[in-house]
């Protein structure tokens, strides 16, 4: 099963249409489903986990859009821009990026991203 297949099974099939799976070490894009990540953004997202609190000052940028950080811990970063938002959830070796719009509640997106990260932890990633 490819990383894209895993991403589809864990997030896309549940209604999270914009998502990606990144390598935690360097932000390498392992799989992407319409996230719109621009060059350099995935590495910057991975780097946020070296000092999660910095996301409050810098914000979180995905697809050229800067989101305001609302929560940051060693394994989860949440950010919003108006009715849209995103969650970055880190497993052992991967970062799940899940974006939502007004059609999905933030809590629902967060739950799906967390479950996906747990799934990848179970695979050793």
TrEMBL record:
Q: Does the keyword section mention Glycoprotein?
A: no
The cross-references to InterPro entries, in alphabetical order and at most eight, read: PFN (IPR048278), PFN_euk (IPR005455), PFN_sf (IPR036140)
Pfam families on file: Profilin
Subcellular compartments: Cytoplasm, Cytoskeleton
Which CDD domains does this entry report, sorted A to Z?
PROF (cd00148)
Q: Which domain of life is it from?
A: Eukaryota
> Is this entry keyworded Cytoplasm?
yes
Identify the keywords attached in UniProt to this record, alphabetized.
Answer: Actin-binding, Cytoplasm, Cytoskeleton
Looking up PANTHER family in the UniProt record yields:
PROFILIN
Q: Which family does it belong to?
A: Belongs to the profilin family.
Q: What name goes with this protein?
A: Profilin
The record lists the organism as Blattamonas nauphoetae
């Amino acid at each position: 099963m490819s990383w894209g297949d895993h991403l589809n099974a864990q997030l896309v099939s549940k209604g999270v249409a914009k998502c990606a799976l990144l390598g935690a070490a360097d932000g390498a894009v392992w799989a992407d489903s319409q996230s719109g990540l621009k060059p350099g953004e995935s590495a910057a997202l991975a780097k946020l986990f070296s000092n999660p609190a910095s996301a409050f000052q810098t914000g979180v940028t995905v697809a050229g859009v800067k989101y305001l950080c609302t929560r940051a811990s060693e394994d989860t970063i949440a950010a919003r821009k108006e009715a849209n938002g995103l969650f970055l959830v880190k497993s052992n070796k991967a970062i799940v990026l899940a974006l939502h719009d007004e059609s999905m509640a933030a809590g629902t997106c967060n739950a799906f991203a967390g479950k996906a990260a747990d799934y990848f932890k179970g695979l050793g990633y």
